[in-house]
């Protein structure tokens, strides 16, 4: 039995919409990372970027379970000495929920150029309006 290896020129990309309203942030991020990576396709190959475009709507309505909203921090480093910055997820979800969703998805993708290229196909929106109607995105409802 032979294994078929897809060529990068044979990759076709679809557009999917995920509604994050009243769903845990991590569960939505997992679905998005799965689609961005292309693992739902039959011809998946780990060394080829074959993922689809993903639009996540209603990021501000995503929930964090347990006490994560009050206890979890988003941390980053400025690059300067003593430049570790942090913000609680409670403030981050109020001010910039798109960034919280983007950070969650980024952590689930590989830390290589393959993951960086996959992240460019992710679009996050605060409300339920988006500007990609021309691409005819399909709702993604896998549980």
Average residue-wise pLDDT: 94
Helical amount among residues, as a percent range?
Answer: 25-40%
CATH class of the domain at 13-64 and 98-139: Alpha Beta
Helices and strands, in N-to-C order? Answer: EHEHEEHHHEE
Strand content: 15-25%
| Helix/sheet category | alpha/beta
Q: How would a crystallographer describe the biggest sheet?
A: 4 strands, parallel
**Dominant shape:** globular
Radius of gyration of CA atoms, rounded to a whole number: 17 Å
Number of helices: 5
- Stated plainly, the CATH topology of the domain at 13-64 and 98-139 is called Ribosomal Protein L13p, Chain: A
- Specify the CATH architecture of the domain at 13-64 and 98-139: Alpha-Beta Complex
End-to-end Cα distance, whole Å, is 32 Å
Strand order of the largest sheet: 5-2-1-6
How many β-strand runs? 6
Low-confidence stretches: none
| CATH superfamily label of the domain at 13-64 and 98-139 | Ribosomal protein L13
What does this structure look like?
With 143 residues, the chain is α/β, with parallel strands linked by helices. The protein has a domain at 13-64 and 98-139: Ribosomal protein L13 (Ribosomal Protein L13p, Chain: A), CATH 3.90.1180. The protein is 29% helix and 17% strand. The protein is built from 5 helices and 6 strands, in the order βαβαββαααββ. The strands form 2 sheets. The protein has a 4-stranded parallel β-sheet, covered by helices on one side. β3 (73-77) and β4 (84-88) form a beta hairpin. α1 (25-37) packs across α4 and α3 (89-95) crosses α4 (97-107). The protein starts with 14 loop residues before the first strand and ends with a strand. The model has no long low-confidence stretch (mean pLDDT 94).
